[in-house]
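ugh ok fine here u go
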Amino acid sequence: MSDVFEQVWPIFEAETREQAQAIAAGVIDLERPGASDRAGPLLRVAHTMKGSAASVGALDIERAAHAIEDVLALAEDGRGLPPHAVEAVLRAAAAIEGSLCGDARGRIPDLERVVGELEDGGASGGGAGPGGRAPTAAGAPGPADLDALSEDVAALSTSDPAARAARAGRARAAAERLAAGLRGHAAELASRLARSAAELEAGGADVAKAIARAAADLVELRGALAPAPAHEPAEPHRDGGGARRADERSIRVDAARVDAIAADVDQLVVGVSRRERRGRDLQRVEQALREAARLLQRGLAEAGVKEDGLPRSLADGLDRLRSIGADFGRHARELRRESDRERVFAHGLRDALLDLRMVPAQTVLGPLRATVRELAAKLGKEVTLHLSGGEVRLDRRVLEELKAPLMHLVRNALDHGIEAAAARRSAGKPAAATLEIRVEPHKDHVVFTVRDDGAGLAPERLRVAAVQRGIVSAAEAARLTDQEAAQLAFQPGVSTAAEITALSGRGVGLDVVAEAARRLGGAVSVAFEHGRGTAFTLEAPLAIAGSTGFLFRAGGGLGILPADAVERVLLVSPSAIGTVAGQATVEVDGAPVPFSSMAQALGTTGGLTGAGATVALLVASGGRRVALAVDEVLGEQAIVVSSLGRRLASARHIAGAAALDDGRVVAVLQPAHLLGVGRLRQAEKEAPRVRIVVADDSLTTRTTAKSILEIAGFEVLPAADGEEALALARDPGCELVVADIQMPRLDGLALTRRLKGDPRLARVPVVLVTSLDSAEDRAAGLKAGADAYVVKRDVQRGKLLELVRQLLPA
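structure:
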């Protein structure tokens, strides 16, 4: 491989991967009639891919892209693509993306099969001509005619005169057909190209000049025939002037280089922390020198020696001691000032680099559409996929870590969660199943939810599997509630699959999902309802970056907890400690929180002394909290977490190690493990929280209301529309509904009427939240049966919480 190709390959690989993903994400929309406006942008993507592949010599990709282009051209008339053509394009896009991995370097092993399927899909797409090309209307040249001419002109540079003459004859005929169907300047260009081809066909012309003229005429002809639409749909990947202008304002950088620079910046932040510590050390030296000078002067005075009567050498020594102390003080102040400036610069640089690494969740959600379509077809199941939250931005490295777990959850839902169509009909369900994947930001974390309306989990089989694996005893398994038993699915080797399948991971359980969440410092949980579906919730940080940590001393040793996992520092008096079912607790924000010592949670010596106030860290992660007593909190410190490698992978309570600013290496603890060790079992030992359904099609408004109510101690079930809210309200335990008026599928007024018309739900209060602020709108809401009405701008002012508390006084 040439040096030029080696230099260009990373750029080509990244660009082609994006193009293949864009084609896979967009081709599904072409299946329905009337989507011709989406065919044009995809055609341009395929055409650009073909040209790029040709320029770097990736002939397999060029040929596959050309075949994809032929199939996509069938959708330009608005009739839509047949399902098998869509599936052929999906497989081809996956084959192209696969050819970019490892050592393939653009080679597609089963190229003939891929191209053959595309040609079959194009040929059966309705009136396709030979080779899968779509014919154009009589006398009207189309893209296929121009592509054929381009292929013939490109082949003119052969050294074989006979082959060149044959190609020239075909090019002349194609150019003459184009000239007959065109008008104006385009027809003149086609005629000129036909004359150049005729000279080459006759063999009497200067070959090099004639080929150059033909190529120039072809380029100019393509430009004359290029469409110039007045407005172009906003597509995530498109080729054209706008894209080129955007490229001029941006550069493509290898992500590994950005990560390496970010790691260096993290070390810079830690270095600033070290210099700040040295500044504090110098100040302490200054104070010690001043104190030594005072003690020396006092000792001389007590000995009856006056300062003006001191020997010259002793007086000079005392002055020198004071001068050195002053120098230390000056250097300490300068170092602190420089450290302050460097800290501002370093943190700003780290934030800027973090922003560079932030990408929309759509980069992972988009390809799932093609995956679900393909896997559902293999399983013979009909599945409707709903994606939301693709605009949420998070660290690219977090997305890379979550890509495989999300795929595992999707495969698990399709293979084991969702029933076959016949089983769904017999259960009174629609034959088409629903799979929802939702992404929602929550403070500095992001929550992925994978929900299906399948059969739900089998807790009894999970109990049996866990007992067989020795994870719990038979007695312990029997005491678990169904929801607690569902969490056993994340234990290694625990699975309810009746048979091993390739789709759901060849028998590999959901422990791989839990392990990925643990590596990121997140958490995973599952909830289900028998016969109605399962919901997996995966929580992870928005970003992975060098950060700050809480340094503490416990059980005779030092430890660090990530600062974002420490909600606050508590001073707990013995009288504030209570018990719930034998578990020590401390009240925080009016709710009991499990209370233990950090040493006990880590399995070392040391416990609660019970004498005097105790310092505790309130650790929070995955919606759970625990208060852990420590000997001493030593403050916050900038840290860079380093992996400990495979040898310490079994130490699940340790997330990594970090070097302190004084050079000592300290373990960074895993918050999720501490919560698992010290938690109070919610199902048995805490009073159930009031459940509220919040329905709004705006993610921002929904998240705001959810956060306000959760902080107040309510359990919130979010819904994106009225239909979903109605389903959630029918679940036992729902005590109030907050709904927007304007929502898709079922608006707030209709939802209110449905709730009040159901004898089981008529007592449930309804609060309508909307941007409409008029007497007529309020009257319409109250007429529908709403119990209260609040304008969106008043939500954050406390009005919503005030109404909820009035409607639920208990």
